[in-house]
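Lab channel / #folding
Pinned by the channel admin:
"Please post every new chain as: sequence first, then the structure tokens as a reply. Keep commentary short and put observations after the output so the thread stays searchable."

First post following the new format, from NK:
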Amino acid sequence: MESFTTAAAVRHAARSGELTGPTPGLAMGYVQANLVILPKDDAFDFLLFCQRNPRPCPLLDVTEVGSPEPRTIAPGADIRTDLPAYRVFRDGQLVDEPTNLLGLWRDDLVGFLIGCSFTFENALLAADLPVRHIEECRNVPMYRTNIACKPAGRFHGPMVVSMRPMTPSQTVRATTICSRFPRAHGAPIHFGNPESIGIPRIDQPDFGDSVQIRPDEIPVFWACGVTPQAVIMEAKLPFVMTHKPGHMFLTDLRDHELENL
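Reply from TO:
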């Protein structure tokens, strides 16, 4: 892990097969991104969905049709190979989790790179705020909620949230810090009782790993870029590819640049 200090190093390790695990805590200071790849016939509706739901789906880059290169945020990179793990959906069903997409790529595909909450974790750590999944070397816990996204064409479904436990006073400080990063989901959308947003068991996340919540802490929830995967399942699109939750694309953007986008 010590060698993964730059985004380029993380991408190279993923491309070579050296890195196949989650990316929180890697290349701190570089912006991480969620990934959605779908045919151009569905691209406009998905773009509209992102514009209508900027908290879970803040767009960082969109590739040209048929091109795997995210030229704005990582020139020379390849979204087919430069993530540790992917997911493949057919008719809304998860059918595979490959480590590259070379054999599945088509000339009609468009890639969407969406902001990720891993980006603001460097700022939280710098402020001595806890990031429990990094402390425990686990993937961040993520949950489907009862919060409905605004629909666009075929795209509709629930918002997914990520969770980090904190004390109430830490939550106030984290809200101030994360508000500086609207392109990385911004401030928390909820804290406290998880059942009020449709999460029955906080110890059983829908994606990622469970983490310890200490007696003086409350769960704090942020909008999450895994939301499109829940929406894809609802829409039952014939063919979509995404990142595997927690296994992100590392961009060449630095955290401070994201604040000004």
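NK: The chain has a mean pLDDT of 95.
TO: also worth noting, The chain is about 25% helix and 25% strand.
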